[in-house]
Amino acid sequence: MRPFGERWRAPYACDPRASRGRLYPEAPSPTRSEFQRDRDRIIHSTAFRRLKHKTQVFVYHEGDHYRTRLTHTIEVSQIARALARSLGLDEDLAEALALSHDLGHTPFGHTGEDVLDECMARFGGFDHNAQALRIVTRLERRYAAYDGLNLTWETLEGLVKHNGPLIDAAGRPTLRYARRGVPLAILEYNALQDLELSTHAGAEAQAAAIADDIAYDSHDIDDGLRAGLFDIEELREVPFLDDLLREIDGRYPGLELSRRIHELTRRVITRFVEDVVREGERRLAALDPASAEEIRRASEPVLWFSAEMREADADIKRFLYARMYRHPSVMSVRRKADDILRDLFRRFREEPQAMPEEWRAGLAGADEARLARRVADYIAGMTDGYAILEHRRLFDVTPELR
Protein backbone atom coordinates (compact mmCIF):
# COMPACT_ATOMS: atom_id res chain seq x y z
CA MET A 1 0.00 0.00 0.00
CA ARG A 2 1.34 3.42 -0.96
CA PRO A 3 1.97 5.76 2.01
CA PHE A 4 -1.11 7.82 2.83
CA GLY A 5 0.77 11.12 2.74
CA GLU A 6 2.21 10.65 -0.74
CA ARG A 7 0.43 12.60 -3.44
CA TRP A 8 0.36 12.10 -7.16
CA ARG A 9 -2.17 12.19 -10.00
CA ALA A 10 -3.07 8.86 -11.51
CA PRO A 11 -4.00 8.62 -15.21
CA TYR A 12 -7.51 7.48 -14.25
CA ALA A 13 -8.20 10.54 -12.07
CA CYS A 14 -10.61 13.22 -13.22
CA ASP A 15 -8.51 16.12 -14.48
CA PRO A 16 -9.93 19.62 -13.94
CA ARG A 17 -7.97 20.82 -16.98
CA ALA A 18 -9.94 18.36 -19.12
CA SER A 19 -13.35 18.99 -17.54
CA ARG A 20 -16.38 18.67 -19.80
CA GLY A 21 -17.30 22.13 -18.60
CA ARG A 22 -20.36 23.86 -17.22
CA LEU A 23 -23.86 24.24 -18.62
CA TYR A 24 -23.22 27.98 -18.79
CA PRO A 25 -19.62 28.56 -20.00
CA GLU A 26 -17.43 30.68 -17.75
CA ALA A 27 -13.90 32.03 -18.04
CA PRO A 28 -11.37 29.96 -16.06
CA SER A 29 -10.09 31.17 -12.72
CA PRO A 30 -6.43 32.23 -12.57
CA THR A 31 -6.07 30.94 -9.01
CA ARG A 32 -8.31 27.87 -8.68
CA SER A 33 -8.98 24.70 -10.63
CA GLU A 34 -12.49 24.03 -11.94
CA PHE A 35 -13.11 21.50 -9.15
CA GLN A 36 -11.83 23.89 -6.50
CA ARG A 37 -14.33 26.44 -7.74
CA ASP A 38 -17.10 23.84 -7.44
CA ARG A 39 -16.08 23.05 -3.88
CA ASP A 40 -16.04 26.73 -2.95
CA ARG A 41 -19.46 27.37 -4.49
CA ILE A 42 -20.91 24.49 -2.50
CA ILE A 43 -19.41 25.72 0.77
CA HIS A 44 -20.80 29.23 0.21
CA SER A 45 -24.28 28.01 -0.72
CA THR A 46 -27.33 28.58 1.46
CA ALA A 47 -28.17 24.87 1.37
CA PHE A 48 -24.75 23.99 2.80
CA ARG A 49 -25.14 26.39 5.73
CA ARG A 50 -28.53 24.90 6.55
CA LEU A 51 -26.93 21.50 7.17
CA LYS A 52 -25.76 22.88 10.52
CA HIS A 53 -29.31 22.65 11.86
CA LYS A 54 -30.53 19.50 10.15
CA THR A 55 -30.84 16.20 11.98
CA GLN A 56 -28.50 13.32 11.38
CA VAL A 57 -30.10 10.94 13.90
CA PHE A 58 -30.68 13.17 16.94
CA VAL A 59 -32.77 16.34 16.72
CA TYR A 60 -30.79 19.56 16.96
CA HIS A 61 -31.60 20.44 20.58
CA GLU A 62 -30.82 17.04 22.10
CA GLY A 63 -27.14 17.79 22.67
CA ASP A 64 -24.26 19.86 21.33
CA HIS A 65 -21.96 16.92 20.67
CA TYR A 66 -24.17 14.75 18.44
CA ARG A 67 -23.62 14.86 14.69
CA THR A 68 -25.69 17.10 12.49
CA ARG A 69 -25.83 16.88 8.71
CA LEU A 70 -23.03 19.43 8.61
CA THR A 71 -20.63 17.67 10.98
CA HIS A 72 -21.39 14.38 9.22
CA THR A 73 -20.62 16.05 5.89
CA ILE A 74 -17.30 17.38 7.15
CA GLU A 75 -16.31 13.90 8.37
CA VAL A 76 -17.27 12.39 5.00
CA SER A 77 -15.17 15.04 3.29
CA GLN A 78 -12.10 14.22 5.39
CA ILE A 79 -12.38 10.50 4.64
CA ALA A 80 -13.02 11.11 0.94
CA ARG A 81 -9.92 13.28 0.67
CA ALA A 82 -7.84 10.62 2.41
CA LEU A 83 -9.03 7.97 -0.04
CA ALA A 84 -8.47 10.27 -3.02
CA ARG A 85 -4.95 11.14 -1.91
CA SER A 86 -4.05 7.48 -1.40
CA LEU A 87 -5.30 6.41 -4.83
CA GLY A 88 -4.07 9.36 -6.87
CA LEU A 89 -7.50 10.90 -7.47
CA ASP A 90 -8.41 14.58 -7.63
CA GLU A 91 -8.86 15.53 -3.97
CA ASP A 92 -10.78 18.72 -4.73
CA LEU A 93 -13.43 16.89 -6.75
CA ALA A 94 -13.75 14.18 -4.10
CA GLU A 95 -14.15 16.91 -1.48
CA ALA A 96 -16.74 18.81 -3.53
CA LEU A 97 -18.80 15.65 -3.94
CA ALA A 98 -18.56 14.79 -0.25
CA LEU A 99 -19.61 18.32 0.73
CA SER A 100 -22.61 18.24 -1.61
CA HIS A 101 -23.84 14.68 -1.08
CA ASP A 102 -26.42 15.59 1.60
CA LEU A 103 -27.59 18.98 0.32
CA GLY A 104 -30.96 17.51 -0.65
CA HIS A 105 -31.79 16.09 2.76
CA THR A 106 -34.86 17.32 4.59
CA PRO A 107 -35.26 18.43 8.21
CA PHE A 108 -35.49 15.62 10.78
CA GLY A 109 -33.23 13.19 8.96
CA HIS A 110 -34.64 10.24 7.05
CA THR A 111 -38.03 10.82 8.67
CA GLY A 112 -38.40 13.97 6.61
CA GLU A 113 -37.50 12.23 3.37
CA ASP A 114 -39.96 9.40 4.07
CA VAL A 115 -42.76 11.88 4.82
CA LEU A 116 -42.16 14.01 1.75
CA ASP A 117 -41.87 10.91 -0.42
CA GLU A 118 -45.30 9.77 0.77
CA CYS A 119 -46.82 13.24 0.41
CA MET A 120 -45.40 13.51 -3.12
CA ALA A 121 -46.32 9.98 -4.17
CA ARG A 122 -48.84 11.22 -6.77
CA PHE A 123 -46.33 13.69 -8.17
CA GLY A 124 -43.19 11.61 -8.67
CA GLY A 125 -42.17 11.15 -5.04
CA PHE A 126 -39.26 12.75 -3.23
CA ASP A 127 -35.63 11.62 -3.47
CA HIS A 128 -32.80 13.43 -1.67
CA ASN A 129 -30.31 12.84 -4.49
CA ALA A 130 -32.70 14.36 -7.03
CA GLN A 131 -33.35 17.20 -4.59
CA ALA A 132 -29.62 17.88 -4.29
CA LEU A 133 -29.48 18.19 -8.07
CA ARG A 134 -32.45 20.61 -8.01
CA ILE A 135 -30.64 22.70 -5.41
CA VAL A 136 -27.35 23.04 -7.29
CA THR A 137 -28.96 23.51 -10.72
CA ARG A 138 -32.11 25.48 -9.93
CA LEU A 139 -33.03 26.38 -6.36
CA GLU A 140 -29.86 28.21 -5.28
CA ARG A 141 -30.27 31.75 -6.61
CA ARG A 142 -27.04 33.62 -6.02
CA TYR A 143 -25.60 34.44 -9.43
CA ALA A 144 -26.77 37.09 -11.87
CA ALA A 145 -26.33 34.97 -15.00
CA TYR A 146 -28.08 31.73 -14.01
CA ASP A 147 -29.99 29.80 -11.36
CA GLY A 148 -28.11 27.19 -9.39
CA LEU A 149 -24.35 26.98 -8.89
CA ASN A 150 -23.36 26.11 -12.48
CA LEU A 151 -21.10 23.27 -11.35
CA THR A 152 -18.91 21.24 -13.70
CA TRP A 153 -20.19 18.17 -15.50
CA GLU A 154 -17.95 15.95 -13.35
CA THR A 155 -19.41 17.26 -10.10
CA LEU A 156 -22.99 16.95 -11.30
CA GLU A 157 -22.31 13.46 -12.64
CA GLY A 158 -20.83 12.40 -9.32
CA LEU A 159 -23.67 13.94 -7.34
CA VAL A 160 -26.25 11.99 -9.32
CA LYS A 161 -24.41 8.70 -9.89
CA HIS A 162 -22.19 8.26 -6.80
CA ASN A 163 -24.09 5.08 -5.89
CA GLY A 164 -23.81 3.64 -9.39
CA PRO A 165 -25.61 3.82 -12.77
CA LEU A 166 -29.25 4.92 -12.70
CA ILE A 167 -30.24 3.09 -15.89
CA ASP A 168 -28.85 0.10 -17.75
CA ALA A 169 -27.67 0.06 -21.35
CA ALA A 170 -31.26 -0.46 -22.52
CA GLY A 171 -32.49 2.54 -20.55
CA ARG A 172 -34.22 0.57 -17.79
CA PRO A 173 -33.95 2.03 -14.26
CA THR A 174 -31.53 0.25 -11.93
CA LEU A 175 -30.94 -0.01 -8.19
CA ARG A 176 -33.28 2.06 -6.02
CA TYR A 177 -35.12 3.42 -9.05
CA ALA A 178 -36.14 0.05 -10.49
CA ARG A 179 -39.66 0.25 -9.02
CA ARG A 180 -40.66 3.87 -9.60
CA GLY A 181 -38.25 5.05 -12.26
CA VAL A 182 -35.55 7.72 -12.28
CA PRO A 183 -36.80 10.94 -10.63
CA LEU A 184 -38.14 13.54 -13.02
CA ALA A 185 -35.71 16.21 -11.76
CA ILE A 186 -32.77 14.06 -12.87
CA LEU A 187 -34.33 13.24 -16.24
CA GLU A 188 -35.17 16.90 -16.89
CA TYR A 189 -31.63 18.04 -16.19
CA ASN A 190 -30.16 15.14 -18.12
CA ALA A 191 -32.04 16.37 -21.18
CA LEU A 192 -30.10 19.63 -20.91
CA GLN A 193 -26.69 18.13 -20.16
CA ASP A 194 -26.19 14.40 -20.66
CA LEU A 195 -24.80 12.93 -17.44
CA GLU A 196 -24.52 9.44 -18.99
CA LEU A 197 -26.86 7.81 -16.50
CA SER A 198 -26.03 4.28 -17.65
CA THR A 199 -22.37 4.46 -16.56
CA HIS A 200 -20.59 4.61 -13.23
CA ALA A 201 -19.38 7.95 -11.92
CA GLY A 202 -15.69 8.76 -11.76
CA ALA A 203 -13.55 7.32 -8.99
CA GLU A 204 -13.75 10.56 -6.98
CA ALA A 205 -17.53 10.17 -6.65
CA GLN A 206 -17.05 6.56 -5.63
CA ALA A 207 -14.61 7.73 -2.94
CA ALA A 208 -17.21 10.17 -1.59
CA ALA A 209 -19.91 7.49 -1.59
CA ILE A 210 -17.93 4.92 0.35
CA ALA A 211 -16.62 7.63 2.70
CA ASP A 212 -20.28 8.26 3.56
CA ASP A 213 -20.68 4.60 4.58
CA ILE A 214 -17.53 4.70 6.70
CA ALA A 215 -18.57 7.92 8.43
CA TYR A 216 -22.04 6.56 9.19
CA ASP A 217 -20.66 3.37 10.74
CA SER A 218 -18.18 5.16 12.97
CA HIS A 219 -20.08 8.22 14.11
CA ASP A 220 -23.40 6.44 14.69
CA ILE A 221 -21.61 4.03 17.00
CA ASP A 222 -20.11 7.04 18.79
CA ASP A 223 -23.38 8.97 19.04
CA GLY A 224 -25.38 5.91 20.04
CA LEU A 225 -22.99 5.10 22.87
CA ARG A 226 -22.88 8.67 24.14
CA ALA A 227 -26.69 8.87 24.05
CA GLY A 228 -26.95 5.70 26.10
CA LEU A 229 -29.00 3.85 23.47
CA PHE A 230 -26.77 0.81 23.91
CA ASP A 231 -23.80 -0.20 26.01
CA ILE A 232 -20.30 -0.61 24.64
CA GLU A 233 -20.24 -4.26 25.67
CA GLU A 234 -23.28 -4.92 23.48
CA LEU A 235 -21.11 -4.08 20.47
CA ARG A 236 -19.33 -7.39 21.00
CA GLU A 237 -22.27 -8.94 19.13
CA VAL A 238 -20.52 -7.66 16.00
CA PRO A 239 -17.36 -9.79 15.51
CA PHE A 240 -15.44 -6.96 13.83
CA LEU A 241 -16.13 -4.61 16.75
CA ASP A 242 -15.41 -7.33 19.31
CA ASP A 243 -11.95 -7.78 17.78
CA LEU A 244 -11.30 -4.05 18.03
CA LEU A 245 -12.46 -3.90 21.65
CA ARG A 246 -10.19 -6.81 22.54
CA GLU A 247 -7.28 -4.97 20.90
CA ILE A 248 -8.05 -1.78 22.86
CA ASP A 249 -8.56 -3.56 26.18
CA GLY A 250 -5.36 -5.54 25.73
CA ARG A 251 -3.34 -2.42 25.08
CA TYR A 252 -5.09 -0.05 27.49
CA PRO A 253 -6.62 -2.07 30.36
CA GLY A 254 -8.98 -0.07 32.56
CA LEU A 255 -9.30 2.78 30.06
CA GLU A 256 -12.06 5.28 30.90
CA LEU A 257 -15.21 4.96 28.81
CA SER A 258 -14.94 8.19 26.78
CA ARG A 259 -11.42 7.33 25.63
CA ARG A 260 -12.40 3.73 25.01
CA ILE A 261 -15.22 4.91 22.73
CA HIS A 262 -12.86 7.18 20.81
CA GLU A 263 -10.24 4.45 20.44
CA LEU A 264 -12.97 2.22 19.01
CA THR A 265 -14.38 4.71 16.51
CA ARG A 266 -10.97 5.82 15.25
CA ARG A 267 -10.07 2.18 14.63
CA VAL A 268 -13.32 1.62 12.74
CA ILE A 269 -12.46 4.48 10.39
CA THR A 270 -8.84 3.39 9.98
CA ARG A 271 -9.66 -0.26 9.24
CA PHE A 272 -12.32 0.64 6.69
CA VAL A 273 -10.18 3.28 4.96
CA GLU A 274 -7.18 0.98 4.73
CA ASP A 275 -9.40 -1.80 3.39
CA VAL A 276 -10.90 0.44 0.69
CA VAL A 277 -7.42 1.53 -0.39
CA ARG A 278 -6.17 -2.06 -0.60
CA GLU A 279 -9.29 -3.28 -2.40
CA GLY A 280 -9.21 -0.23 -4.66
CA GLU A 281 -5.60 -0.88 -5.59
CA ARG A 282 -6.48 -4.51 -6.36
CA ARG A 283 -9.44 -3.57 -8.55
CA LEU A 284 -7.55 -0.80 -10.30
CA ALA A 285 -4.65 -3.13 -11.02
CA ALA A 286 -7.05 -5.67 -12.55
CA LEU A 287 -8.84 -3.05 -14.67
CA ASP A 288 -5.64 -1.09 -15.49
CA PRO A 289 -7.58 2.03 -16.55
CA ALA A 290 -5.75 4.65 -18.58
CA SER A 291 -8.40 7.33 -18.09
CA ALA A 292 -11.39 8.38 -16.02
CA GLU A 293 -13.58 7.24 -18.92
CA GLU A 294 -12.45 3.66 -18.41
CA ILE A 295 -13.48 3.91 -14.75
CA ARG A 296 -16.95 5.05 -15.87
CA ARG A 297 -17.29 2.23 -18.41
CA ALA A 298 -16.18 -0.50 -15.98
CA SER A 299 -18.66 -3.24 -15.09
CA GLU A 300 -18.37 -2.59 -11.36
CA PRO A 301 -17.10 0.12 -8.98
CA VAL A 302 -13.36 0.40 -8.48
CA LEU A 303 -13.76 1.61 -4.89
CA TRP A 304 -15.51 -0.77 -2.54
CA PHE A 305 -14.92 -2.88 0.56
CA SER A 306 -13.34 -6.30 0.44
CA ALA A 307 -15.70 -9.24 1.01
CA GLU A 308 -14.61 -9.44 4.65
CA MET A 309 -15.25 -5.77 5.30
CA ARG A 310 -18.55 -5.82 3.43
CA GLU A 311 -19.66 -8.36 6.00
CA ALA A 312 -18.42 -6.16 8.85
CA ASP A 313 -20.22 -3.15 7.36
CA ALA A 314 -23.48 -5.12 7.06
CA ASP A 315 -23.16 -6.41 10.65
CA ILE A 316 -22.66 -2.87 11.99
CA LYS A 317 -25.63 -1.53 10.04
CA ARG A 318 -27.88 -4.36 11.28
CA PHE A 319 -26.85 -3.65 14.87
CA LEU A 320 -27.43 0.10 14.52
CA TYR A 321 -30.77 -0.38 12.79
CA ALA A 322 -32.10 -2.48 15.65
CA ARG A 323 -30.46 -0.71 18.61
CA MET A 324 -30.32 2.90 17.43
CA TYR A 325 -32.50 3.83 14.46
CA ARG A 326 -35.44 1.82 15.86
CA HIS A 327 -34.79 2.62 19.52
CA PRO A 328 -38.08 3.64 21.23
CA SER A 329 -36.80 7.13 22.11
CA VAL A 330 -35.65 7.77 18.55
CA MET A 331 -38.89 6.41 17.10
CA SER A 332 -40.93 8.61 19.43
CA VAL A 333 -39.20 11.73 18.12
CA ARG A 334 -39.55 10.49 14.54
CA ARG A 335 -43.32 10.08 14.90
CA LYS A 336 -43.67 13.65 16.21
CA ALA A 337 -41.46 15.02 13.44
CA ASP A 338 -43.58 13.05 10.98
CA ASP A 339 -46.69 14.84 12.25
CA ILE A 340 -45.06 18.27 11.97
CA LEU A 341 -44.04 17.79 8.33
CA ARG A 342 -47.35 16.25 7.27
CA ASP A 343 -49.19 19.17 8.83
CA LEU A 344 -46.95 21.67 7.04
CA PHE A 345 -47.27 19.96 3.68
CA ARG A 346 -51.07 19.82 3.93
CA ARG A 347 -51.39 23.45 5.05
CA PHE A 348 -49.11 24.87 2.36
CA ARG A 349 -50.90 22.95 -0.37
CA GLU A 350 -54.25 24.19 0.87
CA GLU A 351 -52.98 27.73 1.53
CA PRO A 352 -49.95 28.58 -0.64
CA GLN A 353 -50.21 32.14 0.62
CA ALA A 354 -48.98 30.86 4.00
CA MET A 355 -45.53 30.41 2.43
CA PRO A 356 -43.11 33.35 2.17
CA GLU A 357 -43.55 35.54 -0.89
CA GLU A 358 -40.49 34.18 -2.71
CA TRP A 359 -41.93 30.66 -2.49
CA ARG A 360 -45.48 31.49 -3.55
CA ALA A 361 -44.40 33.75 -6.40
CA GLY A 362 -45.55 32.56 -9.81
CA LEU A 363 -47.96 29.96 -8.47
CA ALA A 364 -51.11 31.68 -9.74
CA GLY A 365 -52.84 29.18 -11.99
CA ALA A 366 -50.27 26.45 -11.21
CA ASP A 367 -51.49 22.89 -11.54
CA GLU A 368 -51.58 20.51 -8.59
CA ALA A 369 -48.24 18.88 -9.37
CA ARG A 370 -46.34 22.15 -9.69
CA LEU A 371 -47.79 23.47 -6.44
CA ALA A 372 -46.94 20.24 -4.60
CA ARG A 373 -43.34 20.34 -5.86
CA ARG A 374 -42.95 23.96 -4.76
CA VAL A 375 -44.23 23.03 -1.30
CA ALA A 376 -41.84 20.07 -1.15
CA ASP A 377 -38.93 22.31 -2.17
CA TYR A 378 -39.82 24.78 0.58
CA ILE A 379 -40.17 22.14 3.30
CA ALA A 380 -37.08 20.19 2.20
CA GLY A 381 -34.95 23.30 2.59
CA MET A 382 -36.05 23.93 6.16
CA THR A 383 -33.83 23.32 9.14
CA ASP A 384 -35.28 21.37 12.06
CA GLY A 385 -35.76 24.54 14.09
CA TYR A 386 -37.41 26.48 11.27
CA ALA A 387 -39.87 23.64 10.60
CA ILE A 388 -40.87 23.72 14.27
CA LEU A 389 -41.25 27.51 14.18
CA GLU A 390 -43.38 27.35 11.05
CA HIS A 391 -45.60 24.74 12.67
CA ARG A 392 -46.03 26.90 15.78
CA ARG A 393 -46.94 29.85 13.55
CA LEU A 394 -49.63 27.90 11.74
CA PHE A 395 -51.02 25.50 14.34
CA ASP A 396 -52.28 25.78 17.90
CA VAL A 397 -50.32 22.77 19.19
CA THR A 398 -46.83 21.68 18.11
CA PRO A 399 -45.34 18.37 19.33
CA GLU A 400 -42.30 18.58 21.62
CA LEU A 401 -39.55 16.57 19.98
CA ARG A 402 -38.26 14.86 23.12
Automatic annotation (TrEMBL):
InterPro entries: dGTPase, dGTPase-like, dNTPase_2, HD/PDEase_dom, HD_domain, HDIG_dom, PHydrolase_assoc_dom. Keywords: Hydrolase. Residues 69-217 form the HD domain. SMART domains: HDc. SUPFAM superfamilies: HD-domain/PDEase-like. CDD domains: HDc (cd00077). Residues 19-38 are annotated as: Disordered. GO terms for biological process: dGTP catabolic process. Gene3D superfamilies: Hypothetical protein af1432. Pfam families: HD (PF01966), HD_assoc (PF13286). One of its GO terms (molecular function) is dGTPase activity. PROSITE patterns: HD (PS51831). Belongs to the dGTPase family. Type 2 subfamily. This is Deoxyguanosinetriphosphate triphosphohydrolase-like protein. The lineage of its organism: Bacteria, Pseudomonadati, Pseudomonadota, Alphaproteobacteria, Hyphomicrobiales.
